[in-house]
């Protein structure tokens, strides 16, 4: 499952309408819609997701390899905190930006 599919699933678990989450995040509905439909997300948005859905493992959300990482698997333990994951993502994004 891809990030955007997981994000849709996550949002539907708590909100009836996408607009409700956009309002909660104080962001433009069309921007949130773009994220849900596959546009690359910002670090600020990921921070909001972490705060709104603390029960969700950011590592699971960002990986495309659902066969390796199960959402509710007891065997899977996160070694990094969400903050550490976000910091790592920021570093990787900076490196990627330099390469482009």
From TrEMBL:
Domain of life: Bacteria
CDD domains xrefs: HTH_XRE (cd00093)
Domain HTH cro/C1-type: 7-61
Record-linked InterPro entries: Cro/C1-type_HTH, Lambda_DNA-bd_dom_sf
Stretches that traverse the bilayer: none
GO molecular function: DNA binding
Name used for this protein in its record: Helix-turn-helix transcriptional regulator
Source organism per UniProt: Snuella sedimenti
């Amino acid at each position: 499952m891809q990030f955007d599919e997981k994000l849709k699933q996550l949002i539907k678990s708590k909100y009836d309408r996408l607009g409700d989450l956009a309002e909660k995040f104080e962001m433009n509905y069309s921007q949130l819609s773009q994220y849900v439909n596959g546009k690359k997300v910002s670090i600020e948005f990921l921070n909001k997701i972490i705060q709104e859905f603390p029960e969700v493992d950011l590592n699971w959300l960002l990986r495309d390899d659902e066969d390796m990482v199960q959402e509710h698997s007891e065997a899977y333990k996160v070694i990094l905190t969400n903050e550490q994951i976000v910091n790592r993502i920021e570093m990787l994004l900076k490196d990627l930006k330099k390469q482009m």
